[in-house]
Structure formats: C-alpha cells, structure tokens
Amino acid sequence: MQVSVDFLTVNLCEKDNYRYGGRYHITNAAETKKVGSDDLQTMGAIMEREAMEFDVVIVGGGPSGLSAAIRLKQLAAESGREIEVCLIEKGSEVGAHILSGAVLEPRSLNELIPDWKERGAPLDTPVTADKFMFLTETGSFRLPTPPQMNNHGNYIISLGNFCRWLGEQAEALGVEIYPGFAAAEVLYDDSDAVCGIATGDMGIGKNGEQTEMYMRGMELRAKQTIFAEGCRGHLTKTLFDRFDLREGKDPQTYAIGIKELWDIDPEKSKPGTAWHSVGWPLSTDTYGGSFLYHLNGNQVAVGYVVGLDYSNPHLSPFEEFQRFKTHPAVRGVFEGGRRVAYGARALNEGGFQSIPKLTFPGGCLVGCTAGFLHVPKIKGTHTAMKSGMTAAEAIFESLEAMQPGHEPASYAERLQDSWLWSELYKVRNIRPGFAKGLWRGMINAAIDTYLFMGRAPWTMRHHADHITLKTASEAPKIDYPKPDGVISFDRNSSVYLSGTNHEENQPAHLTLKDSSVPIEHNLALYDAPEQRYCPAGVYEIVREEDGSSPRLQINAQNCVHCKTCDIKDPSQNIVWVTPEGGGGPNYPNM
Ligand SMILES: Cc1cc2nc3c(=O)[nH]c(=O)nc-3n(C[C@H](O)[C@H](O)[C@H](O)COP(=O)(O)OP(=O)(O)OC[C@H]3O[C@@H](n4cnc5c(N)ncnc54)[C@H](O)[C@@H]3O)c2cc1C
Ligand code: SF4
Q1: From ligand 1's centre to the CA of 532, what distance in Å?
Q2: How far apart are CA 18 and CA 9, in angstroms?
Q3: pTM of the full predicted structure?
Q4: CB distance 510 to ligand 2 below 6 Å
Q5: Is there a single domain that holds both residue 174 and residue 234?
Q6: Most buried in the list 54, 418, 455, 469, measured by CB within 10 Å?
Q7: 369 C-alpha to ligand 1 centroid (Å)
C-alpha cells in the first residue's frame, strides 16, 4: 500500500497532550513513500500529524458554533479584515447529530441575520396555538400556560435543518467547515494555554491496532478555540478539570429528551400547534413531560423529557415515552400515521447557578456545553446562538493584536451585560423547586414567577444527577407494557430510524474506568440501570443459559451520542469519548 507522507515529525516534548512548539522536524518530504503494513505500524508510532493554522477554530456545528462562526466573519467583512475561521463537526454533515424539539425563539436570529426571511431560513411554521396539559392515567385537563411557555412569535422548526441553513450562510461568508471529523484531543502550548484541537486517528482497529484504513488525525491550531460541543461536551469536560472551570459553581443537572417524527393523517394536522404535558406516565416525584409540535407538511414532532435526577433505578425514559404516546389525549394523533425518525439527546437543566467559568487561556465555551438552556421555556437555541455571537464579538475585538494564550475574558463580561444573563437569572429557582416533586415545584414556580418576578433574595441549589438513585430494593419496580408496534415500539426498531452507523472495527467509544463496576456495583445495587436509561439498547447484561456469570455487553455501534450514560452512571465509571468522525446518528429533519 502507498502512503503519501508530506510532513513527518517527531515530538520531543510530549506531556499528557501534544504540546505546541518544541518539535523536532526530521523530514518534510513532499514525496510518496512505499511502505508495507509492518512499516505502517512503526511509522504510525512516529508519524506526526499534519497541522493547519487558523485564527479561530470552532468545535461543533450546532446553533452556538455556527452563530459564532457567522458573527466572526460578519465582523471581519465589516472592518475589511481577513480572518481564517474553521469549524469542525463530528456528524457526517452539519445537522446529522442535531436533535431538538423544536420551537425557536427568533430573538438571536433577528440580531444575527435580520434578513433571514429573504435568505430562505427554514422557519415555515409560526406557532399559532399553545396548550399546556396535565395527564392522569385515563384523562387530561388543561392548565394555564405559564408565561415562559407562551410561544407567540416563535416558530416550530427542525433544528437540524436550521443548522444546515446556518452552515450554508457560514460557508458563503468563507468559514471552512469540516463535517465528518471529531475533535478528539485539546492541544496545549508550552504555557499550558489551549492552542487548538486534534481530530482523532481513523482506521484504528478494535484492539488498538492500525488497519489498512489508518490515517493519522490532523491538528487544527488557532489563536482562539471555541468549544461548542453541545450538552455534556466531551472535550469540555477535560477543560473543566484542567482549568477548574466549575469551581464554586453548582453541579450541572440534565435531562434526557427522546423524540420521534411522524407523518400523520392530513385531517389531524394542525400546523402551528405547540402542545405540552406534565403528569402521567411519570410519577409526581420525577421531573419531566412531553412536547408535541405540529409542523407543516402533515408532520408531528413528539418527544418526552425526563430529568436525570430521577431516583428509581427501574425507570426507563424510553419506555415512559412509548407509554405516553398511548394516552387517550394523544393516541389519535398517531393512529393512521407512520413514524419516520427517532433519536435522543441530553439537555442541560442547571441554568444560571450551574454556568461554569466561560473562558481560559486560548479559548472559551459557548452554547449548551456551557449550559445556557432556559428550562421553563425548554429552549436553548436562542441562548446558544447569543453566547456564540457574544464570544465572537469579544474574540474579534482583540484578535489582531492577540498573543498566544490570550484569555477572552471580555466574553463573560459582555454576556453578563446581555439579555441572556438576566433571562437566565430570573428563572434560576424554577427547576430546583421541582426536586421535591411536581406539586411543590409548580407552587414554587408560580410564587417565583408572579410574586417575586424572578427577584427572590435566595438561589436554590442543585445536586449532581448521578448521586440521586435509590438502590433497586428500595424503589418500586415498574411494569412497562410490551410495545404494540403501531404506536409504541422497541429500542431496536427505533435505533434503526435514527440512521445510526459506526465503523464496527474501532475501539469502543464507551469506555469503562473500571471493568468490574458494572457487575459488582451497578448490577448488585441498582439492577444495572444503564440497561434502561440508554435509549439505544447499547448496554445489555448477558448471562449463561442457567442465568449465571452476568457480564455487561456494550453494543457501541447503536450509540446515538445522547451522553446520558456519561451523566447518569452512579459511579461515573462510563466515559463517552469521540468515536471515528462521521459515525453516529444521521438525523434527517430532527
Ligand atoms: C429533546 C430536546 C428538545 C429541545 N427543544 C428545544 C426547543 O423546543 N427550543 C429550543 O430553543 N431548544 C430546545 N432544545 C435545546 C436545544 O436543542 C439546544 O439548546 C441547542 O441545540 C444547543 O445548541 P449547541 O450549539 O450548544 O449544541 P448542539 O445543538 O448540541 O450542537 C453541538 C454540535 O457539536 C458537535 N460536536 C460535539 N462534540 C464534538 C466534537 N468533539 N468534535 C466535533 N463535533 C462535535 C455535535 O455533533 C453537534 O452537531 C431541546 C433539546 C432537546 C434535547
Ligand atoms: S451509549 Fe450512552 S451516549 Fe450512547 S445512546 Fe446510550 S446512553 Fe446515549
């Protein structure tokens, strides 16, 4: 096999991560070398990564990363300057890994691209009706719509398609977008400042060996790196530790959102209707509820969100969602229809008191990787966009004179002066109020909203989600009905509709810190809750025919990248790392 080697170097100075500078260049041969597979193994060990230099590198092609990219290029165009902006996305294309409700509040879009209508933004379904319901097992009644859930002026959209459109706008402005590449490693310079990222190596086999497809990852170096990885960003977690970004902040808390897209009977279609419910099938001690949005084109987006601070290890968010669809208040919507897509994604719910320090030498965090979701609104897109735009403005102002390792501290200051900060501050006590159950949460929310108007002289605290589980023997078992294959489904047929695909011959991207924990701790104490909270059937306890020798089987190829296991595993033993770029779900219109 032939390998073209353009730039072969050896690292003299490697700590835990690659360090920028201090490199010894042994050859720079723009020639083609013939190597055998043995040579390839040896060469891989010394083959240095190719590197590209940019002013700004952005990790993640969601609304926050794309808004940052667009704003940077807009500012450069306005001031007649050239800047190089690169955005990297682990999905096979921009939008492939995006899953949301979604009702879009267009406030940030109006600021970023005021003529979005003329530019054909896919905002086709204005919200025309809001309904907020309480469900009992057999009945339902309407609740007053809380002010935060009033969607007048908002649009029901596919966030994936919106991101595809934002990607086109960014490319038209000259942003270099590389989909199909996962940022697998943060690069640090000699002063320990972030100086870019490296994409993962491709063509590594299951056991860590290099296959014929082996390709060394690439270094994307930059004066500033913006991390826009979305909820529970994998590299962001390493930055939290390295720079103590969470010190003095509340733990982040999360929920899992599971969603399906249905083609429905045209006679049942009510484009513009946004419908939410609380209550059945969840018990009142578990935070969560449903959304059901009627889009144009006889489609319905339906989903269920369950707070990951739930305490019953027998609970299965996937099965709660399947049960919900059978309720008499909604069942009819799906009858005669066809499910066309499925997926899941975690969302963050910590709000104001869980926002980490946002900057560090060499870069910053934007969007849901930092945690800007407005929980009572169930909306994080407008805040993600605003944070991306604000980071871009802060970075651009000092980019020209910027020294390596500059910390864009003015980003946090600008954000604190923006509407985003006061919006999140006002609702900071609503989500933690639900830790004591639905009714107390609703009363607290009403008092906080109508009496204190978000200005209560206290701030309620959060706890981490992985510490909330009771043991299996302490919690009631839940008997979920079998799926009927018409309205409710099993995990396998669901994952099929997510278009998920991973190269099978690659190291598992769901790693265990300690391989004894799943059986000796999780199974023994909690009846292996990963079997139930994973919405893709990745974790299975398999046994011998006689029921002996239980072991955890990880079907990593099914993973839809929701990150729930990384969050909810009771001993934080599961660590989600990036698989080969391009792997994972291929969501069409989610
Ligand atoms: C079920 C559900 C319903 C929701 N409903 C609404 C709603 O109705 N309205 C609303 O406004 N918000 C809603 N949200 C929240 C909203 O989707 C998020 O707030 C928003 O998507 C956050 O944008 P982001 O850019 O920060 O992250 P994301 O949208 O998550 O985008 C992050 C991107 O980065 C990529 N990425 C991550 N890590 C890497 C890496 N290491 N290398 C390369 N690429 C990487 C991902 O593949 C992804 O494309 C909902 C969320 C969920 C889960
Ligand atoms: S393995 Fe983890 S990240 Fe993947 S789908 Fe399951 S819970 Fe989500």
Answers
A1: 23
A2: 13
A3: 0.93
A4: yes
A5: yes
A6: 469
A7: 9
